[in-house]
């Protein structure tokens, strides 16, 4: 029930202690402000990590080889390990029932590419048709490599959007011929990539064509796979880890590499990386929650101290109230009412200021690992609940003390 006299008492107490109330409210407001900003940064980090993983398929497994670092079967370390089409075929044949997308890759960096008077140096990659989806690429115009191109060693090229802008200056490119290190290729497609300019400075050609024009025989630089979808993340991660371990073991066996050689064969599992990043991000979020809550507790302690002082100053008044029949719960309600009011108002000020700042500045923040920090409605509701609980907690002990004041002792208080 609305009690105007109680509200008058609250405002009278605040008026008498303006500076003390302001400073205490400031500590609560700053606690909520810091908590919301920290949680928003945590969300921004999650957005940034998610954006990073958009560059490739989220469940991609990439395999490449290096030099051996461990002696094995009488062979010295330092051997260069090169994969070939047989490694790719072995992996595909052994796992045909669980592989979704697949491609071998042969790459050459810094290939001079010319169109009329324009030229540039780009990475050229020979791939299979599935590579479009392994790289999460979107066709802007034309088509991607198809199986017919692979079978007939066609000299066709799919160029990145940045290559298109560099060489064609936004003019028509489809059907035109570009010169890659002295060999003519017909442009049949243009793609864009979520990774941006860095990923769009590449040219893709059929893998069989790349192996032929670069005299690579059946050599591969790397292989890439995705597995069939699973019912949940844990099952997908387990299947991905098992596949990664198996393909690493198979390649080491085929190329006589020591099982404990961690350098010769590299397997990058994006699901494992995703889990690591999100586990780290969750830890950071919990840390931010801890820092914010500790800051709020500091403010709540300040409010509690104020309420203790108020109880001390109003000891005689409380004694008179109890002497004329006031119940303990009404005394507790009076103190809690004031405590919750001060805490809630200060907290809402901190909440509104933090949301305003995030609305103003958040969309402008786009670094590699923090993008558009923000908080959702559930977080705002959670902070409101924290405010009410904090206010009640701040006032409980002073209210309990007030309720236990004996009228005769209160009346003697000076």
TrEMBL record:
Domain of life of the source: Bacteria
Record localization: Cell membrane
Family in the record: Belongs to the ABC-4 integral membrane protein family.
Membrane topology note: Multi-pass membrane protein
Organism, scientific name: Aequorivita aurantiaca
Record flagged with keyword Transmembrane helix: yes
UniProt domain ABC3 transporter permease C-terminal: residue ranges: 291-407
Descriptive protein name: ABC transporter permease
Transmembrane segments: 21-41, 286-311, 331-357, 377-397
Keywords of this entry: Cell membrane, Membrane, Transmembrane, Transmembrane helix
Highest classification ranks of the organism: Bacteria, Pseudomonadati, Bacteroidota, Flavobacteriia, Flavobacteriales
Domain MacB-like periplasmic core, residue spans: 21-239
């Amino acid at each position: 029930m609305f009690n105007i006299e109680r509200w008058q008492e609250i405002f009278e107490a605040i008026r008498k202690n303006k500076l003390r109330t302001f400073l205490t409210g400031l500590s609560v407001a700053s606690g909520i402000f810091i908590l919301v900003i920290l949680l928003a940064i945590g969300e921004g980090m999650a957005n940034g990590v998610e954006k990073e993983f958009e560059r490739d398929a989220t469940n991609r497994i990439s395999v490449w080889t290096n030099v051996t670092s461990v002696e094995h079967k009488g062979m010295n370390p330092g051997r260069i390990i090169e994969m070939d089409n047989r490694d790719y075929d072995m992996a595909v044949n052994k796992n045909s029932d669980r592989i979704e997308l697949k491609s071998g890759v042969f790459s050459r960096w810094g290939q001079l590419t010319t169109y009329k008077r324009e030229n540039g140096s780009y990475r050229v990659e020979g791939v299979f048709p599935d590579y479009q989806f392994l790289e999460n690429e979107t066709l802007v115009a034309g088509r991607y490599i198809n199986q017919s191109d692979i079978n007939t060693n066609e000299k066709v090229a799919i160029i990145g959007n940045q290559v298109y802008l560099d060489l064609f200056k936004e003019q028509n490119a489809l059907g035109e011929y570009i010169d890659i290190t002295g060999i003519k290729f017909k442009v049949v497609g243009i793609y864009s990539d979520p990774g941006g300019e860095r990923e769009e400075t590449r040219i893709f050609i059929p893998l069989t064509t790349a192996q032929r024009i670069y005299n690579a025989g059946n050599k591969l630089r790397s292989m890439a796979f995705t597995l069939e979808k699973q019912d949940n993340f844990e099952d997908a991660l387990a299947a991905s880890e098992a596949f990664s371990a198996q393909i690493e073991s198979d390649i080491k066996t085929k190329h006589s590499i020591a099982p404990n050689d961690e350098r010769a064969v590299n397997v990058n599992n994006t699901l494992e990386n995703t889990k690591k990043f999100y586990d780290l991000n969750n830890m950071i979020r919990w840390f931010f929650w801890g820092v914010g809550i500790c800051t709020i507790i500091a403010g709540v302690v300040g409010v509690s101290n104020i309420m203790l002082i108020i109880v001390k100053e109003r000891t005689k008044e409380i004694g008179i109230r109890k002497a004329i029949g006031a119940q303990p719960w009404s005394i507790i309600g009076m103190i809690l009412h004031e405590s919750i009011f001060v805490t809630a108002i200060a907290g809402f000020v901190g909440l509104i200021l933090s949301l305003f700042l995030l609305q103003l500045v958040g969309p402008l923040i786009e670094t590699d690992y923090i993008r558009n920090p923000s908080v959702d409605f559930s977080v705002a509701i959670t902070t409101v609940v924290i405010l009410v609980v904090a206010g009640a907690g701040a006032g409980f002990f002073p209210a309990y003390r007030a309720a236990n004041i004996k009228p005769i002792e209160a009346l003697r208080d000076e």
